[in-house]
Every structure is written in structure tokens, then in C-alpha cells.
Design goal:
78 residues; mainly alpha; globular
Length: 78
């Protein structure tokens, strides 16, 4: 099951993907998975999520930092 952080990472990647006008199919090719898998990841009720390697490849291909992908963390949150 996806954690709250997983959900926020997926949403951040989806926003970055759409800002760059990158399709699920193109993203899938960039990170070496099927485009159906990207759809599964972006579907809220699916247990699929990006691996650490996928997140690295996305940051590299999007020419952004991993900090852009990970959600901001409030140090006061439990």
C-alpha cells in the first residue's frame, strides 16, 4: 500500500510531468517501464509506486533535483 509520502511523491512527479508536457508513455520510456505501469502508479487505489531508482531517473531526465520530487517535510510533524 502507498504511504502518504509515496502519494505526495507520485503527485509531485505527475505535476512535473504535465508541466513539461511529457506523456505517461514518454516517461515510461525514460525510466524503462511500461506505460501501463505509469498509469498504475498514478492511480490512487493501486499499490504500485516509483522505486528509488525510478525517482533518480526521473530527476535526471527532468533535469531537476530529487528535492523537487520529494515532498517538503515539516520537522515538527510526527
Amino acid at each position: 500500500m502507498k504511504t502518504e509520502i509515496d502519494i505526495r511523491i507520485i503527485e509531485n512527479i505527475k505535476v512535473l510531468r504535465k508541466k513539461r508536457d511529457i506523456s505517461q508513455r514518454t516517461l515510461a520510456e525514460m525510466i524503462g517501464v511500461s506505460y501501463g505501469y505509469i498509469g498504475d502508479i498514478e492511480r490512487p487505489n493501486s499499490p504500485c509506486k516509483y522505486s528509488a531508482w525510478h525517482r533518480y531517473l526521473i530527476a535526471k531526465n527532468f533535469d531537476c533535483s530529487l528535492y523537487d520530487i520529494f515532498p517538503a517535510i515539516d520537522p515538527l510533524e510526527p
